[in-house]
Design goal:
The structure is a single chain. The chain is mostly beta strands and 408 residues long. The chain has a single domain, classed as Porin (Beta Barrel), CATH 2.40.160.10. Helix content is 13%, strand content 50%. The protein contains five helices and 17 strands. It has a 16-stranded antiparallel β-barrel with strand order 1-2-3-4-5-6-7-8-9-10-11-12-14-15-16-17. A hairpin with a 2-residue loop joins β13 and β14. The longest helix has 22 residues, at 2-23.
Length: 408
Amino acid sequence: MKTFKGLLCLMATCAISLSTFCQNPISEPKQEVKKEAHLPKKWYDKISLRGYVQIRYNRLLETNSQLKCEQCDRSWGENGGFFIRRGRLVFSGDISDRLYIYIQPDFASSVSNSFQHSFQLRDAYFDLALDAKKEYRLRFGQSKVPYGFENMQSSQNRLALDRADGTNSPVANERDLGVFFFYAPAEIRERFKYLVSSGLKGSGDYGVFAFGAYNGQNANKAELNNEPHIVSRISYPFKLKSGQIIETGIQAYTGKFVIEKTAIKNKATDVQYIDRRVAASLIIYPQPFGFQAEYNVGEGPAFDPVTMKTEIKHLNGGYAQAMYRKKIGENHITPFVKYQYYNGGKKHEIDARRYIVKDVEIGAEWQLKDYFELTAIYTISDRTFEDAVLPINNQTGNLLRLQAQFNF
């Protein structure tokens, strides 16, 4: 009995000691941990890294090997094969409360049909917030020019493999070097973010209102005159009571473009041309049905096969796309139909090559979670693309296009 009482006393003493220790633990280790937790982050801890790769094959069920598309995909037609369309890494992050950086190189740029997979800078810009909520921003560097919804939409998110000729021809690779101002309320900035992160194929945050000046010779090109292009855009994503989001936009730019490449047979004496356009956009996000359309008009350089020289010509063109987004388990499948039309020049191609484009695309995207996408598109194409070397050139044909995209 004495032994049992002694054991109880020992247990009580241990319990009291343990309670006292818990209430008054040794302070030095805790202070050390607390100190570590409040150490400021280094700049490199604030940078995130992500990327994606697109691998294509366009020659299945092909009916005309002379049907090509230099701007959209160099692996169309004769001598085209398996093709890495994009291989990109994105370095981005908030370096401070007011500074955001975004740098995106591409490891799969095609300098020519025979020289592929070269390294080229796509984006290198720095957003300086003018207020604590970051509703007002100034962007410095090489970035997408705020003109058009599909141009702003990342290739990683877009359904169609390529942007429409009519609305993409103003800015090759969608980018140029300049300074841009963006404004959007904090609530709408969150909505822009949601439209991308939710898989609804948003364009990203380029503000409700944008205004800027840029060189005008396209990305990775030096300025060739002393007159910058001026651009402005207004776009707003309305959210209905039903939850449906509809975005409308209008944009315009003006400037002068210097033609760098002309064939010997081109009789043009001028190298600098008026370059201006205005466009309207309508996007009904796929919830589950969606619709997207854009159209632009303007004037710019275009080759004339009658006079055999590059002249200032009127232009017009756009596209319309219908889609349906269906969730199957953790995956999504989105069938779509797209029609595009364009009548005008492409200033960045030789002689400002003249185009008349009438394309129909019928396809579907299968998205496996968030790391893999497979897209198949059957294209029915009627393209006229004429320059001083080929002043009469109309090609029609059909082809099945496949793309595997890996997100990481």
